[in-house]
Write a structure and sequence with these properties.
Elements: H1 9-36, H2 42-59, H3 61-70, H4 79-89, H5 91-94, H6 101-112, H7 116-119, E1 122-123, E2 129-130, E3 134-140, E4 146-152, H8 156-168, H9 171-177, H10 183-198, H11 200-213, E5 220-221, E6 234-238, E7 243-244, H12 245-251, H13 254-275, E8 277-279, E9 287-289, E10 302-304, E11 310-312, H14 315-330, H15 333-343, H16 354-364, H17 366-369, E12 374-375, H18 378-389, H19 396-399, H20 409-424, E13 428-429, H21 431-436, H22 448-465
Parallel strand pairs: 5-10
Antiparallel strand pairs: 1-3, 2-3, 3-4, 4-6, 7-9, 8-11, 9-10, 12-13
Helix pairs in contact: 1-2, 1-8, 2-3, 2-4, 8-10, 14-15, 18-20
Length: about 475
């Protein structure tokens, strides 16, 4: 059912709390019964998942974005029912409830000062997709180009900020649970990322930055931005015709899935390693798999869309990250701990079991530290989340004494997201060698895709070196 307005802070907070209590108690109860040997029925899990999808989808905003994250990360529920949650909550990525057509047209008229049929050669009021803070429509320009028009829901900015204020009310509890955590820098970072995501002109700038950096790439595509048509609540970009992730995984063979997994991995690590940029929203709704023959080698190409959550690291922060990674990769615990302290993970007054801290960070980086090839699985993805969130985790006592520097806030999201996406693709590869291509100038291409990428990068660097 189409929606024309969003609830206020109190209403949204109450609904979110009720949903959280019902869903969390259900999942917690399921976990407890699993530990005692009494399993809940699959029907019960289906009911909980459908309830979460319905309420979060109807609320839009930050609550719905939480549901989108849950739709593809691997929750700590029995493996046989993880797919139940993926399937129900995937509706928040692909088929979320549409907004009222007149309200969407109203936003376009407010932003352009004219109705959409005067701005575009044609505009389809039926949404192609509905997401957390806006929905996407198809249109054509006067020159015949096909574009997508992302329109922000009316009132969603206020609703998202209300969700953030609801989250801020938990700050005292967070300080109690994690006494060494610096809460305000995290909240400041979250506010900054949310402000970026609510301003489509900022998103257009980020997308253009990625599009320029990946221009003419052999297997990665970033849609062009139509800058003169972008507004604070409207984003217009080149339309990409590609297969959605779920449809691709349902019909692809092992070789195709391995290829797409490698492209996704290269996009994430290459963006950070070469440009100090990363897109902090790695969920399956943001990938479109183009047809055979679209890439330089005749294979499939992946288009990456949605740049509302982007972060650029300073050179100093990036160098700090690399120092930690090198120490973990070489097994140098002393340097790793010293680097973590310098980066702000270990406060000066924190007395912790350094070996447990070291082991936890190695768990997070296992895909590139383990014996290669490494295969991503849903069990590994769930283990990483459980190590952080489960109070019974062997890392729990140590983690509550740590501090998460604000620059790393979205990195957890990208880590969890990539683990689960690559698990869905059953991805096996020499990820260490692929990663090294982006952090070691002397590393040779590890795969055929790496050879194409290296040749492209040589041309790019030449272009950047020109005066």
């Amino acid at each position: 059912m189409a929606r024309s307005k969003l609830g206020g802070r109190l209403e949204r907070g109450t609904r979110l709390a009720r949903t959280g209590l019902k869903g969390a108690s259900g999942v917690a109860g399921a976990t407890a019964r699993r530990w005692t040997g009494r399993q809940p029925s699959e029907q019960r899990h289906e009911e909980m998942a459908e309830h979460l999808a319905e309420v979060l989808g109807d609320m839009k905003g930050a609550a719905m974005k939480l549901g989108q994250l849950l739709s593809f990360v691997d929750l700590d529920v029995p493996p046989e029912v993880r797919g139940v949650y993926h399937e129900a909550l995937a509706k928040l990525r692909d088929d979320a409830p549409a907004f009222d057509e007149d309200a969407i047209i109203g936003v376009l008229e407010e932003e352009y000062g004219a109705p959409p049929d005067e701005v575009f050669a044609s505009f389809d009021p039926r949404p192609l997709a509905a997401a957390s803070i806006g929905q996407v429509h198809s249109a054509k320009l006067d020159d015949g180009r096909e574009v997508i028009v992302k329109v922000q829901y009316p009132g969603v900015a206020e609703a998202v900020r209300a969700d953030l204020r609801n989250a801020e009310s938990f700050a005292p509890l967070a300080r109690f649970l994690s006494p060494n955590q610096e809460i305000e820098p995290l909240l400041d970072e979250l506010r900054e990322r949310i402000d970026d995501e609510l301003d489509y002109e900022h998103e257009a700038q980020y997308q253009r930055a990625f599009a320029e950096r990946y221009a003419d790439h052999p297997f990665i595509r970033v849609p062009d931005i139509i800058g003169d048509l972008c507004r604070r609540r409207v984003l217009v970009a080149e339309r990409i015709h590609g297969q959605r992730f779920d449809a691709f995984t349902a019909r692809s063979d092992d070789e195709e899935r391995t290829r797409v997994a490698e492209i996704i991995f290269r996009y994430a690590f290459g963006s950070i390693g070469r440009f100090r940029l990363f897109n902090g929203d790695p969920h399956p709704g943001n990938y479109l798999i183009e047809e055979e023959g679209s890439a330089a080698d005749g294979g499939k190409r992946v288009a990456f869309v949605d740049y509302g959550s982007v972060k650029m690291f300073t050179r100093e922060r990036y160098d700090s990250m690399r120092t930690i990674e090198r120490a973990l990769s070489s097994g140098d615990q002393d340097t790793a701990i010293a680097s973590l302290r310098e980066a702000g993970f270990l406060p000066r007054n924190a007395v912790v079991d350094e070996e447990v801290v070291y082991d936890w960070f190695r768990l997070y980086t296992r895909p590139v530290l383990a014996e290669q090839p490494f295969c991503f699985t849903s069990d590994y993805a769930a283990e990483v989340i459980r190590s952080t969130m489960d109070p019974r985790s062997p890392y729990s006592d140590v983690l509550r004494k740590l501090n998460l520097p604000s620059d790393y806030l979205l990195l957890n999201r990208i880590q969890w997201g990539l683990n689960s996406v690559l698990a869905r693709l059953e991805a096996c590869n020499d990820w260490r060698a692929i990663r090294d291509e982006y952090v070691d100038e002397d590393a040779q291409p590890a795969t055929r895709l790496g050879e194409f990428d290296a040749a492209w990068w040589r041309d790019q660097r030449t272009r950047y070196d020109r005066p």
